[in-house]
Amino acid sequence: MPKRFTTLAVIAGLLVFPFAHAEKPPTLTYGGQQYQGDTLPPALKQSLNQLAQQYNDQRRQAFDQYALNRYVQEEAKRQNKDVKAVQQELMTVADPTEEQLKGFFEANKARINGTFEQAKPELVNYLKRQQMAEKAQQLLKQIALEKGYRVELPEPEQLRFDVATEDYPSKGNAGATITLVEFADYQCPHCKNAVEVVDTLLKQYGDKLRVVYRDFPINQSGVSRKVAEAAVCADQQGQFWTFHNLAFERQNYLKSVPVDALAEEADLDMGKFGDCYKDAATKAKVTASLNEARELGLSSTPSFFVNGRPLGHSHGDLQQDLKELIDEELQAGS
Q: Do 115 and 150 form a contact (C-beta atoms < 8 A)?
């Protein structure tokens, strides 16, 4: 039977151990200086917050598992059936069809190694696990209706950081209620997709939203760093967003297209551009942005802050995730 139906003894063990260490706040001593609470470095606060969220997710899974186990046992008793038989009735899923398998393969073949036939056994298992997870969620909703099941967990601390925005390119209302800061890399495919998301949010929220762009060139090729420095020079000529959009449009060719060609295509004054691009201050500005991103604990792109609140790693709908955070801030400020 599926491993998700674990024993209650294991679940109880998961729930007890961490609470013994929950009362005393963490303290860091380094170089003769002690850090605690608000004085903890931002990168460390980010890491601890992520761990707290992961712990909450694990606790929720344990609670959900307990509810599923208990419901199955109660149903087995009510129907006078074997527990395993009830588990099969409630959780068994059909094998995915050939059409479903091929559809999933075509939609994700860029991330799948091998041919369809080679990947097929693994795809069957993956899609069945997905169906079982969906079935478990449906059953939990049913348990919530029938048994009043719900879980209340303490939320991790809501983080808010001072993120520099002055002298960095921005668009939207300078006096907006909401400031959205994006740290991005010009070679990052997800950052390219985020361009449309950000523009859509600007249209949706109008004067309530201001967007600030920050460089976080972490691609190891070094090309992103060169493009970021060129963008600083475009900003000096009031053409940052033109250059920014053009660079993302040409993302697939950035390794082979020199930055001065992009600058020329963006209709920049090439004399001024050349002087700026060689200026040490240009490199220093990109370095400062990169260093701040690291101090804030960022490790991937794009990364977003809404009024200083970091958006957790979005594995679903980026636009919806950002919208929810923006709406929370608007509601809090109303």
A: no
